[in-house]
Structures are given as C-alpha cells and as structure tokens.
Design goal:
CATH class of the largest domain in chain A: Alpha Beta
Number of domains of chain A: 2
CATH class of chain B: Mainly Alpha
Number of helices of chain B: 14
Oligomer: heterotrimer
Strand order of the largest sheet of chain A: 6-7-8-3-9-10
Chains: A alpha/beta (453), B mainly alpha (338), C alpha/beta (308)
CATH superfamily of the largest domain in chain A: P-loop containing nucleotide triphosphate hydrolases
Helix content of chain B: over 70%
Order of helices and strands of chain B: HHHHHEEHHHHHHHHH
Strand order of the largest sheet of chain B: 1-2
CATH topology of chain B: ABC transporter involved in vitamin B12 uptake, BtuC
Number of domains of chain B: 1
Number of strands of chain A: 18
Distance between the termini of chain A: 86 Å
CATH superfamily of chain B: ABC transporter involved in vitamin B12 uptake, BtuC
Helix content of chain A: 25-40%
C-alpha cells in the first residue's frame, strides 16, 4: 500500500476509524435557542431577511430544523425556496437575522467547516470539461483534503460507499456528461454523500427526472435519513412527493412562512389555494394516508367566485364523489347527507369542505342525523339522488325526500340499486310522480342546473 | 475506480521532465552551426573551464541554450495560463490572450521600440521591461473594473478583458499606421513573436518568475477542479472562491505578461496544449497543470528549433510553426477520439 | 622611413576627423585605430579587420565602394548591389540576422545600421568578442562621415577620399545649379497602396530640396505619412515622382493611374517620373545618383533630359 507522505488533517484520520457516517457528535457550545422536547435543533433561523436587489426575497423568516428530520420547503416560484438553501449553506449572507447551526453562528464558520457539515445537491449541474463520475464524486471529499490533496484509500472507500448507495458504482469511469439526467443526479447525490455531512440540502432533485427515478431518489433519501440519521432539507415543486416523504413542510409565500407543520397541517386546500392562487383539491392518498393534491384548471375555478345554487346530494359508498367534485368545480354550493363517518363519500366531503349530515360508522341512519339532513335539504335549492345502492341502512335517506314534495329533485337513472325489497323502487316512482326529473348522466344534470340558474 | 494517486502523479511528471531535458539537449544540436555530440558533451561536462575562443562552444552556451531555455519557459507559461483561464472562465475557448494582458504587453513593448529606448543596455533590456509594465497595468485595470461589490465577477471579467484587448490592439494598429516603414517592420516583427537569444540575466529572471508562478498555480490545482463546478457548488464544497479566482487571474495573467514581453505574441500554444493534454490525461488539474507546463515547454522548444533551422539562415516566425504544425495534428486527434 | 612619420600623423588626422567630439582621452597604442560610431560606442582595432559582415544593404554598398569586396564575408538577404554582393554568404534578413551564422563566419567586424534589435545584437556578439560598428546617418553629411569612418577602420582612407571627394563635387554642382531658381512643387509617392509620402527628416525629402524642388508635404510632422488622395490633389504638385521598388510594369500602371487626375499640373504637363527607390532611401554612395535622378526629373531644363 502506498503510504501517504503528506500529513493528513486530524479529521481525515478520524474518518478512517469511523463508519460511513460519523456517530452523532456532541453539540458544541449551546446558543440561547429554545429547546423543543429537550433536543437542540440542528438549524435555527431567526428573523432572516435577504434581498438580491430591492425587494426582500426572504422576509422575516424564523424556523427550526430538527436533527434527523426531513424538512420540505414548498411554495410557488419566486417565493424564495432556493434562496433559503443558499443562505443555509453560507453561499449568501443574510442582510438581517441569524442562522445557527448546532448552536453556532453560521457566519463564524469557515467555508471549509460549513462544507463538512452541509452537503448540497443543486438543481442542475453543468460540466464544461470532461470529468469522470469517480472524479466528481471524489470532489465531495474536498472539505477534508488540503493542498494537492491526493485522496487516501479511506477517501476512496467513502466515495465508493457513496456510489454504492446511489447505485452509481458502475458508472465511475464514465464521463459525467455522458450520463442521463437521472444517473447524473444520483452521481451528484453521491458527491454530497461523500462529504460525510450531517445535513443534506437538495434543490428540486427530481426536477428533470421521470417518475421511476423520482421515487428512486426520494426512497434513497428516506433510507439515508432512517439509517444514518441524515438531516435533510429538500426544496420541491412536487407537492405530492413532498407530502409523502417529508416529516414537516414549510410553505413559503413571497419570502414569508405561510404555514409550517406536518404535511397534513400544511397541505390543505385553504393554504394552497391562497398561496398558489389557484384552486386545488386535497385528498388523502388511499395507500399511505398522506395528503394528495389535485390541481384544478383555472378556467373552471373562476366559476367558484359566483354564487350559485345550493345543491344537496343523496349518495354514499363513493357514488357521489364524481358529482360532488364536478359541482364544486362548477361553483355550486354542495351539501350532503346522510353519510356514515369513514364512508368514501364522507371523506371527499371532508376534503372538499362540503357540509355533511353525519352518522356513526356502520350505523344505520338515526333520527339525530336525519334532523340535520332535513335541515340541509330545507336550505338547498335542489336535491340530487345519485346512483346509490339503497339498503336498510340508508333507505331513510330516500324516505325523507317524500317530506319535501315541493323541492326540485333530480334522480339519476339507477339500476340494480334496490336492496330493500322493493321499497326504494317504489319511492323512486313516487318521487317521479311528484315531479322529480330523471336524468341519465352528469352532463345532463349540469345542463339542467345551468338552465335553472 | 480510476483515481489520481501520488505515484502516478510523480511518475508522469518525472517522465515528462526527462523528455523535456532530452528535447533541450537534442535541440541544442540543431542550428546553423554544425555541433555534434562530442562538442556537446565537451561543453556540458566542463561548462566553466572550456576554451572561450571556441566559437562553437560559445554558440551553444550563449546563443542556443538561452534561447532554448526561454522557449521552454514561454511555452510552459502560455500552456499553464491557458489551462488556468479555461478553468476560471469555465470556457474551453479561453486562451492566455483573451483577457487583454497580451495586448497591454505588446503596446508597452512597441512604445519602447518607438521611443528608441532600445539603445539603453542596462541590466534588463528595455523592450521586455516596458512590455511587462504594459501587461501589469492592463492586469490592474481589468481586475479593478471587473470587481462587483468587492467580488470578482467572471462574466464581467471576460467582457472587460476582451474589450480592453481589442481597444489596445486598435491603438497598436493606429500607431503602426502612422509611423515610418522601418518602424512598422520592427513593430510587426515583434508582434509576430520570436524567441531570439537573450542575455542570461533576462532568461534567469523570466525563468524564476514563470516557475514560481506555475508552482503557485499548481498548488491551487484542486481548487481549480472545484471552480469548474460553478462558484456556488465550489463554495458549498468548501472552496474559498474569491481567493481562488484572484490567484488564478493574477497568476495566469502575470506569467502571460512575462512570456509575451520577451517573446511577442506566439499563438496557439495556450489553447492547443491545454486541450491536447486534457484529451490524453483528463481534466484533473493536479496532473493537468504540471503536464501542461512541461509539454508546453517541449512543444515550443521543438517549434522554435524548427523555426530557426528549416530555412536557415532565415528564421520563420515561431508562431507560424506552432499554428501550422499544431493545428492539423489537433484536428487529427479530435477525429481519432470520435 | 616614411612609415614612422606617416602613422602618427595619420593617426592624429584621423582622430581629429573621425568624431565630432573631442578626441578620447584614453591612451591608445601607437598602431591602434579608434573610432566612435553613431551611437557613441568606441571601437578599437589593432590592425584593420580582415573579415567584415554587413547587416544592411547600404552598408554593403559602402564597403564594396571602398574596395573591400574581399573583406566582406557575410551580407543580408537583401544586399543586392553591387551584383557580386549577392553571391556572398547570407546571414539573415533585414531585422533578424542569425547570430549563429554570423558567429560561424568568425568576422572581425560587423557593421550595421541602427535597428530595433541592435542592442541585443551587440550583447550577443560580445560573447564572441566580435566588434560591432553602428551607423545611423540622418543626412548626406552623415553618409560622407560614415564612409570616412569605415575607411579609417579598414585602412582605405585613400579610396574614401576619392569617393567622398567625387560625391561632394557632384553634390555641390547640383546645389549651385539650382541655387536661386524657381522650386516646383514635388510630390513623392513612396508607396502606392496605401498612399505614402515623405516628410522632413527623411532622406528622400532632403534630396528633393537639394535637387531644387519643394516637397509639397514638407510641413508634415513625421518622416513618412499615409495620406488620402484628396490632399495630393489639393496640394497640386507640379512634379510627381513615383518611387519604384518593384518591376517596371507596376510603375507604368501606377503612372497611368495618376494620369487620370488632370487637375494637377504635373499630369497636364506630363511630368510624372519614376525613380528607383533604393537610390533615394539607401544611405550610401548611390544616394548622389538618386539625387541626380531627382534633379533630372525636377529640372529637366538644367539637367539632362531623363526618360519619362
């Protein structure tokens, strides 16, 4: 083995004995920051203000980043997401406010020291000259090298491990600009990993990747976070991925924090529509339970401004979801009832902000909920009965309509829906004879409602 | 994974150094005077005590050797400056003359020629001295103008350098147009670039200067690797970006200024050697810089030898040889790589 | 014997005539020749140089005119007069003499005119103990002086006396003949494209004045200047002289080109002449021939009719 001639810095020597990531270091001198749950935050940002030219890009930001968490920063373009990363990595100096990292003021640290703690994965990279992937990843060892810095075998080992983790080991001798977008991004992540930092900042790491690669990257980040207690701050445009993988989210709005908290707390229709200035629909991912965002066309959401009819829908078991969405988009105020808590339609109502008459889960409709239902029907302009299957549990939803002979009712053509031994069918017939209109599909309903307006 | 080990580094540099020394020795045979191996060995083995009346010995030691050494220094300086500026400007098309230092040196030298200061034979001849002063002033100017809030803006520097170079070149053109034919000849001759024999004092000063400059730049080689990633990424990997930019700019410009003041504008070395070497050994500046220095020296020594022997006693301007021989060879290599 | 007297006398005479400055106070050996060149350097010889290298065509002409054909061992690529000079070994071009080639010839003396490279040349040749004599003539007097200096160095004083004498005689003759008469305006075309003419301080301009003409651009600030055609037309010269460095056909074409501009009296009176450039730019003995050509062109009524 070639023995190194030059003196290796103490840190480099230490790395030789440590495992891939250093064990959690004891915090150094503590700042006077407040302690949450007894643990010192990794980053502490206080009243941060920054501007490039005239207007403040970051305006009075204060937040903490806990050690070992995955924090996502979301927000529209120009809200300052990338700028935060730049300030945190000491590329930019704040105009006002302070940034503390593990209790120490960031500005007091040398560039080298910062690089040993923070690894950054930029959004895109450009290489005017041919470097191999191996060379690029080894550049991640720079904060630990000095002078001509010939890498030791330990450095190589660390770099190899980083490449193994990112599945780029086989690419090590290829030229970096020959790689595809996904491969290149993984190589850059490997470089950040080779830095052996405690924090990784990622700026839209999946912006140019296809879905498969996106999941790959995020899974990798999750794994590193779990196994190595790597603190991660990730800026993302992709709200769904951010919601899935992040422990906490910061929603930025023109340099200020609109909301900070768990994905469920942050990703709500109200927050998003206010910040992004567009209508969104927020649901729950049926598999993971994380919030899931659907964007709504602006054309459609214009109608939301106009006050329209109040429509009450009789549905259940998922039959009303589609119609509810369409009506909400069209701008109608929708109410619903009676639905059991936990019913698929009830969840949609929850996320769309629709008033519902609720019943206990799996319970047949009781008088209490019916009262509420009656009230809602009373206030509505028109009632629509969806293609619901009616059984003993919810037949009272149909029956109650008979109490409102004056109320305009729309029935959707229904087939094989009667599980009440004929009762539902007869109510249908009676309602029709009272003037209820039978329509075949949603378009007809919407047309009808339009004309009615 | 292929990586640069200390061993590989040392061996490569050693081999190239041996090649350089061999080239120097071989080229000292070549010239109008017919000097053979016996003469060379005689001279080199007893450099101080040899017969001073022996014309051949004097030719070797006092005419050819200083010139060859100068060629070595100038070639190395231009090649290294080319590599460094390409890294600093993140642009493969950069060459040592892009930032205007060469035009400043040229103007200084031409002013010395015109003022007839060529007659003063002090310790240092005045033309290179003025040339270097001109280069220095240009460096200061470009440096100052390209500072934005006490930081060097590389894009600004490139533009300022190009414009400054163009303006100075126009001034030179103007001067050339109004002086008499004899002086025009002198000016054009100087501009074409030539490595005429100089006194050892000048050769030593230039060598000292260039070698120190190259060594400092080699020390920052790893920083140059990082700088190519972009200033933001480099800073995030722990690089003191401003300091590196300053060292790179000043270092490359000073050695270019020194080279141009003694040799005029010799083209092609500063862009051919960097690309050639990068094709062969890769972009790691820790190896690329010393290799460029040594191979630049070898290249120019060979080119200059061809320049003074092909049509002896007439000398072809060395810039012609570097371009005509280097160009096609480079294109050939490019096609091979494809 | 005669020699014993002649040497000291000649020595004193030469010392007196050689430099315009007071004689050097350094002691010199009895047979030593000392001369100071045009840049103030002292050149000493114990015996006259046997091998001389010339680094300028004008120097070559002077050396050959002094009868030093055998002593000349090296010339530049451009030394083309006299014819035999072309066959001498070459040491390089006008501005870039090849040091090695010079050194190999092992000359005793190198004579050059002052150029950009001269200090370096002197320094380099010093390594070989080769002496360099630098000429820098500014006018006819300087040329005569140079001829004498070189003659002194090479022991050809007799030849010099005769040569300079005859040249001076012809010069005086011309001056006398044109004294007091009308001086026609003369335009000298040094270069055709771009158009270049001569101004005060250049040999050609001085020669025009001596030949009885008036350089229409004698108010120029520089010795050579580029100028637009309109200035020439405005100046309205009575005589146009084309300086030919190349073949006759080119000059004929140039002449024809001038003939279009009939506003000038020179064209109307058909007074466009061609003169060989070397005769009026090389500071050597043939400058008087050049003067004669100019005189014939400017005052054909006085001097012989010259070919148009």
């Amino acid at each position: 083995m070639w023995r190194p001639i030059f003196h290796l810095s103490p840190q480099t020597k230490k790395i030789g004995t440590a495992t891939f990531f250093p064990k959690r270091r004891k915090s150094e001198k503590r700042s006077d920051s407040f302690f949450k749950n007894g643990s010192q935050p990794f980053f502490e940002v206080r009243r941060l203000r920054f501007r490039y030219e005239r207007s403040w890009v970051l305006n009075d930001l204060s937040f903490e980043v806990k050690q070992g968490e995955i924090l996502g920063i979301i927000g529209p373009n120009g809200s300052g997401k990338t700028t935060i990363l730049r300030v945190l990595s000491k590329v930019l100096i704040p105009d006002e406010g302070e940034v503390y990292i593990k209790g120490r003021n960031l500005l007091r640290l040398r560039t080298n020291e910062v690089a040993r703690i923070i690894g950054v994965v930029p959004q895109n990279t450009y290489f005017p000259f041919p470097f191999t992937v191996g060379q690029v990843v080894l550049m991640g060892r720079s904060p630990w090298l000095s002078g001509l810095g010939f890498e030791s075998s330990k450095d190589l080992q660390i770099a190899s491990q980083a490449m193994a983790l990112t599945n780029t080991l086989g690419l090590s001798d290829r030229l970096i600009f020959e790689l595809s977008g996904g491969e290149r991004q993984r190589a850059i992540i490997a470089r950040a990993l080779a830095q052996e930092s405690e924090v990784m900042l990622l700026d839209e790491p999946t912006a140019y990747l296809d879905i498969g690669h996106q999941i790959e990257i995020y899974d990798l980040i999750k794994k590193l976070n779990a196994e190595k207690r790597l603190t991660v701050i990730i800026v993302s445009h992709d709200l769904n991925l951010a919601a899935e993988y992040c422990d906490r989210l910061i929603l930025l709005d023109v340099g200020k924090i609109h909301k900070i908290g768990t994905p469920k707390e942050v990703i709500t229709e109200e927050n998003l529509s206010r910040v992004y200035q567009s209508k969104v629909l927020v649901e729950e991912n049926p598999v993971t339970g994380a919030p899931r965002v659907t964007l709504v066309s602006k054309l459609m959401s214009k109608k939301y401004q106009e006050k329209k009819l109040v429509v009450h829908i009789i549905c259940g078991g998922g039959s009303g979801t589609d119609l509810m969405r369409k009506l909400v988009i069209e701008g109608y105020k929708v109410t619903c009832g009676v639905l059991n808590i936990g019913d698929a339609d009830e969840l949609i109502c929850e996320s769309l902000g629709i008033e519902v008459a609720r019943e206990e889960p799996f319970y047949p409709i009781s008088e209490g909920s019916l009262v509420r239902n009656r009230a809602l029907i009373e206030e509505s302009d028109i009632v629509i009965v969806e293609r619901t299957k009616f059984g003993k549990g919810n037949i009272r939803n149909l029956e109650v309509l008979l109490e409102f002979p004056e109320k305009p009712i729309l029935l959707l053509e229904n087939d094989k829906f009667d599980y009440t031994g004929g009762r539902a069918t007869s109510i249908y017939a009676e309602l029709k004879s009272l003037g209820a209109v039978a329509l075949r599909n949603h378009s007809e309903i919407i047309e009808y409602l339009e004309e009615g307006c | 994974m292929k990586v640069l080990s200390r061993k590989k580094w040392l061996i490569t540099i050693l081999l190239l150094t041996i090649l350089l020394i061999g080239t120097i020795i071989f080229c000292s045979f070549q010239g109008s005077a017919d000097i053979n191996l016996k003469d060379v060995i005689e001279v080199f083995s007893n450099p101080l005590g040899q017969n001073w009346q022996d014309t051949k010995a004097i030719i070797l030691l006092k005419v050819r050797l200083p010139r060859i050494l100068l060629a070595c220094m100038v070639g190395g300086a231009l090649a290294v400056a080319g590599v460094v500026l390409q890294a600093l400007l993140r642009n493969p098309l950069a060459d040592p003359y892009v930032l205007g230092v060469s035009s400043g040196s040229a103007l200084g030298a031409i002013i010395a020629i015109l003022l007839g200061l060529n007659i003063t034979i002090g310790v240092l001849p005045s033309i290179p001295l003025f040339g270097f002063a001109g280069g220095l002033l240009t460096i200061l100017f470009v440096y100052h103008i390209s500072k934005v809030h006490r930081k060097i803006s590389v894009q600004t520097m490139l533009l300022v350098g190009v414009v400054t170079g163009a303006v100075l070149a126009a001034v030179i053109m103007f001067i050339t147009s109004i002086v008499g034919p004899h002086q025009v000849q002198g000016i054009i001759f100087w501009l074409m670039g030539s490595l005429s024999s100089q006194d050892y004092s000048l050769v030593l000063i230039v060598s000292f200067y260039v070698i120190i400059g190259i060594l400092i730049l080699i020390y920052h080689a790893r920083s140059l690797n990082l700088l190519i990633l972009g200033e933001e990424s480099a800073a995030q990997l722990g690089l003191e970006v401003e300091r590196t930019k300053k060292v790179a700019f000043v270092g490359a410009s000073l050695i270019t200024g020194a080279a141009v003041s003694v040799s005029g504008l010799i083209g092609f070395v500063g862009i051919l050697i960097p690309h050639l070497m990068r094709m062969i050994i890769g972009s790691d500046h820790r190896l690329l810089l010393p290799v460029a220095a040594l191979s630049g020296g070898i290249y120019l020594v060979v080119a200059d030898t061809l320049a003074r022997t092909l049509l002896a006693p007439t000398e072809i301007p060395v810039g012609v040889i570097t371009a005509i021989c280097g160009g096609p060879f480079f294109i050939y290599l490019l096609r091979q790589k494809k | 014997m005669k020699n014993q007297f002649i040497m000291p006398i000649v020595y004193i005479l030469l010392l007196a005539s050689c430099s315009n400055q007071p004689p050097s106070l350094k002691s010199s050996a009895p047979h030593e020749i000392v001369c100071i060149d045009d840049v103030g350097r002292e050149v000493r010889f114990n015996h006259p140089p046997q091998k001389i290298v010339s680094l300028d065509p004008s120097v070559t002409e002077i050396l050959f005119a002094l009868g030093l054909a055998n002593e000349v061992v090296g010339v530049t690529n451009y030394c083309d007069y006299p014819e035999v000079a072309k066959f001498k070994p070459k040491v390089g071009g006008y501005l870039d003499p090849n040091i090695e080639a010079i050194a190999l010839l092992e000359p005793d003396l190198v004579v050059t005119t002052l150029k950009t490279d001269t200090p370096r040349l002197i320094q380099q040749l010093e390594n070989f103990r080769i002496k360099v004599f630098v000429l820098d003539p500014k006018n006819m007097e300087d040329i005569f002086h140079n001829i004498s200096s070189l003659a002194k160095l090479t022991h050809r004083e007799e030849n010099a006396r005769r040569l300079v004498g005859s040249l001076k005689e012809r010069l005086t003759d011309v001056k006398r003949k044109v004294d007091g008469i009308y001086r026609p305006g003369v335009f000298l075309e040094m270069g055709a494209d771009p158009l270049i003419t001569v101004g005060p301080g250049s040999f050609a301009s001085d020669l025009i004045e001596i030949a009885g003409g008036r350089n229409v651009f004698s108010h120029s600030s520089s010795r050579y200047r580029r100028l637009p055609l309109e200035e020439v037309l405005l100046a309205g010269p009575e005589v146009i002289i084309i300086c030919s460095m190349v073949s006759d056909d080119k000059c004929l074409a140039q002449k024809r080109w001038w003939e279009r501009w009939t506003t000038m009296s020179a064209v109307r009176n058909n007074r466009i002449y061609v003169v060989e450039a070397d005769l009026i730019t090389r500071p050597g003995p043939r400058m008087i021939d050049g003067l004669m050509e100019l005189a014939k062109a400017i005052h054909p009524e006085i001097f012989q009719e010259t070919k148009r």
